[in-house]
Amino acid sequence: MSLRVESLSVHFGRTQILDDVSDLEARPGELTALIGPNGAGKSTLLKAIAGIEKSTGHISLDDTALDTLDIAQRAGRIYYLPQDITSRAALSVFEAVLLARRTTHQSDRQQDLKRVQHTLQTLELEQYAERDLGQLSGGQRQRVAIAQAVVREPRVLMLDEPTSALDLHHQLQVLEWLVALAREQQMIIVIAIHDLSLAARFSRHMWLMGAGGIVRAVGAPEAVLTEERLREVYAIKAHVEWPDGEPPRVTPLAATRQLGAQGTGQDF
């Protein structure tokens, strides 16, 4: 099973956001990191793959063309979690995660309850199980949203900046869990992430996007994250280290020039 993207383009009116994105593959059992500067089209790419954003091109899963499926069929295979999470539902944390589980599974209720409890425990949310969603901090709400996503057990899970509101402890915890989840359930997981050191440490595969919605590189982190490529795509001088037995490190040293078209600060 693999997810493949070929000749994918997206336009907002006359503005082209993604330009003939091709040769992207994400494999089961691995975490794929989607990286690139603001405005490169990372969020749009995830939405297009999930069927939320209208696109042209070819997206396939298990050799099945996803554009031939209706919305419900596609949603049953791919789940997209946006970066900005808002909820006004008057639910407790436990109720919210259980509801997410029940919308996609009709298994035994006791099995669902056990699955929800395990998910909350793994994300250190057990102590908040009876607390209303509106009483949570931003980071806590983000962890609940991640719990709601993974408890559905989609075949493909797409997360847009899942660690952006988390402290360092919970960033590592969530990423370690996602890696284990992908491996144990042979799930395809793709995350958009800005922290290149974390991306290099936890992903097995990378998609690097640059200005104009163009994919600049795909492959293993050590092949994608070169100092020359970071200078070209991010307009920074950086030092990249791959020490034996230690996590990789990407250290930005200086900006080299303006980002131009990709420096609008708008994340499509």
UniProtKB/TrEMBL annotation:
MF-aspect GO terms: ATP binding; ATP hydrolysis activity
Could you tell me the keywords of this UniProt record? Answer: ATP-binding, Nucleotide-binding, Transport
ABC transporter domain boundaries = 3-236
Sorted alphabetically, which Pfam families does this protein's record hold? ABC_tran
PANTHER family with a match to the protein in the record: ABC TRANSPORTER ATP-BINDING PROTEIN, HEMIN IMPORT ATP-BINDING PROTEIN HMUV
Matching entries from InterPro entries are given as:
AAA+_ATPase (IPR003593), ABC_transporter-like_ATP-bd (IPR003439), ABC_transporter-like_CS (IPR017871), P-loop_NTPase (IPR027417)
Keyword Nucleotide-binding set for record: yes
Spell out the PROSITE patterns in the cross-references.
ABC_TRANSPORTER_1, ABC_TRANSPORTER_2
Entry's family note: Belongs to the ABC transporter superfamily.
- Bilayer-crossing residues are none
Determine the domain of life of the protein's source: Bacteria
Write the protein's name: Iron complex transport system ATP-binding protein
